[in-house]
Design a protein that fits this description.
Two copies of one chain form a homodimer. In chain A, 64% of the residues are buried. Helices cover 31% and strands 27% of the residues of chain A. Chain A starts with 8 loop residues before the first strand and ends with a helix. In chain A, a hairpin with a 4-residue loop joins strand 6 and strand 7. Chain A folds into two domains: 267 residues, 4-Layer Sandwich (L-amino peptidase D-ALA esterase/amidase), CATH 3.60.70; 119 residues, Roll (Ubiquitin-like (UB roll)), CATH 3.10.20. In chain A, strands 1, 2, 3, 4, 5, 6, 7, 8 and 10 form a nine-stranded mixed beta sheet that branches. A seven-stranded mixed beta sheet of chain A has the order 9-16-11-15-12-13-14, sandwiched between helices. The first copy, chain A, has eleven helices and 16 strands. With 405 residues, chain A is α+β, with helices and mostly antiparallel strands. Chains A and B meet through helix 8, helix 9, strand 14 and helix 11 of A and helix 8, helix 9, strand 14 and helix 11 of B.
Chain lengths: 405, 405
Amino acid sequence: MATVRLQATSIDGTVTTPRGFRAAGVHCGIKADRPDLALVVSEGVASAAGTFTQNRMRSAPVIQSEAKLRSGRAQAVLINSGNANACTGVQGFADAQAMAESAAAALRISADLVLVASTGVIGRPLPVDRLAAGIPAVVGALGSDGMAAAKAIMTTDAFPKTAAARVDLGDGVATIGGMAKGAGMIHPNMATMIAVITTDAAVEPALLRGALRTAVAQTFNCISVDGDTSTSDSVFLLANGAAGCAPIASEDERYAAFVAGLTDVAGRLARMIVQDGEGTTRVIEVAVRGARSDADARLAGQAVMTSLLVKTAFHGAELNWGRISAALGRSGADVDPEKVAIGIGDVWVVRDGVGLPENYAKAEPLLRASQVRVTIGLGLGTGVFTGWTCDLGETYVRINSGYLT
Amino acid sequence: MATVRLQATSIDGTVTTPRGFRAAGVHCGIKADRPDLALVVSEGVASAAGTFTQNRMRSAPVIQSEAKLRSGRAQAVLINSGNANACTGVQGFADAQAMAESAAAALRISADLVLVASTGVIGRPLPVDRLAAGIPAVVGALGSDGMAAAKAIMTTDAFPKTAAARVDLGDGVATIGGMAKGAGMIHPNMATMIAVITTDAAVEPALLRGALRTAVAQTFNCISVDGDTSTSDSVFLLANGAAGCAPIASEDERYAAFVAGLTDVAGRLARMIVQDGEGTTRVIEVAVRGARSDADARLAGQAVMTSLLVKTAFHGAELNWGRISAALGRSGADVDPEKVAIGIGDVWVVRDGVGLPENYAKAEPLLRASQVRVTIGLGLGTGVFTGWTCDLGETYVRINSGYLT
């Protein structure tokens, strides 16, 4: 057997970069003047998996798509932006089903193979007539340009988010492509925002689920914009086998290579979401080391990542490490105040729990960069966690205090 | 025995309203140009109790004052603002002790009877020389004006916070007076910010502790400004018996009357802290009813109170109830999406989990008031919780992204 290169290769690309996928994005009138309807279609029935929000107030499309994915098969994903179809009661379920059925009719496939997702304002009825009227246009526009679909799923996003990777599977090269949207209600304790990832690898549904779970745990579930978990979070993964490689049917080296590629694509999309967090000016990577356990490391990291005081200090590029210490102290993780170390980039500013003023001048310029790396040493064990968050500025408040208007 | 009126009477007042207490506030030079040193002294040794932050990174003064309070006795509380003496290592403990000793020497009492607290920036050495130099001034200024002390403990607070109450104990009337400071790093999962409450009632130390715990659980521990728990939170309660009433020595009606008065004072101080939250324009009361348990009601209420998206929507006076639903859904409390009801003031905007658009126009003007009451019905049991939070505006971000400068 040929040697498998476990390292996937990052490339530019979209959901249509893998063979056998078409996509489109159009304006159907849910939003005033921006694209609001996206469709991704596989040329044949694909293996499919999804992960969904852990919020108890799950939207109708989340509940419906999760049920459909029990079959492990799907052929299309239809997504609208501008309305989340969440907290919409019985009508919401009927609307989500109508949405799937109109796409299925136009595509001449079964509605059971059409996954749906909706993103936007919560608690308003989905304008299902406008959406249905847009179906012929979006089906007619299907083609190899995946960027139009990535633009149509944006809400407050400032830029479309796409990424791709190539993976050598020994008997051929498979491609993985993805798109995602942010940009608010983003918090790691979930199964995350809306993303669609396609691949022309052939993967058995059960393995596809495991691969997605593994990739999401290290990527989308390690980011936070504002600590609020959405009611609509959905990640879809479709594998159509069009690359012609043999199916991945066990957790072997080929599976590991596929997971590496999937994690690369998901990780780049996740970091783009943080980079485009509402009002963000910089991305903060928070790496926790030396925790009592990985679970403790995640608690500690998330407390820092979601602290308003930490995020506003980063906005001001201020070296207010006391706020990081305070967040660690309330995180619920085991913390020994006399063992804490905090570094900015390669500069330690806290050791044994107290400041190192002689290093402050070296650390301060690093805080003004667009990417800031914070390392937290707890000195208690081998637990680790790495997550990504953003600063919080006046713009976040402005966007979210006038969201409806 | 005389009938005890359990209802306490709210009055205006400060820590010097109860008999036998003097206080002062002066400028000692920790802050550039504002009062930064406060002292409260009882004429004799008082029963004393305290509650302190649950943050693992407890400041040196917190650790020291808690240890002193094991005796159940104290005579003075010395507080500086401008520097929290937190995350300051061994030097921090020495500085906190030096602080207590200089006040004790000037007052000619034991340092064991002097409680200390510090509030301000974390992680910088306490300028203990300046503080010691200010001791003669603050002792010399001791008098019946409690407002000067309330001003000297302010950090980003916009106004001093004081409250008092009278309680009929059957054999006489006792008075309770208090002061508190906010205004950031305020979050309910704690034993809270800095407050000093005095009373001329006579109360055994063990009962005083119980009374304080009861009052704090319903007041300071039910507020949130920004979800960040401080390293310095301290509430001190001194009871000197100067009213001349018989000691409260068991959990009888007189104890209940005292707890009612204490809860009144603590509750008014707590709501003042929210009203003065950094950048606040309105106070939001969140009342959860019908939860599976009181613990569940608290989880649900706190998720709503700390949601950035909920707080920014209230800032914009927008009826974006979907964000309240989303926060309930991720709260960890048991929630049935089809049973949720949400009211603004007396107007229901959600019933059975879906919006009541016919009521929106009635609710919207209520959102523009300085006090907004939100009622959440979960329809699952008898658990209740009431808490207070504030909106979040650009000003909060401005204050906290330029805190050090």
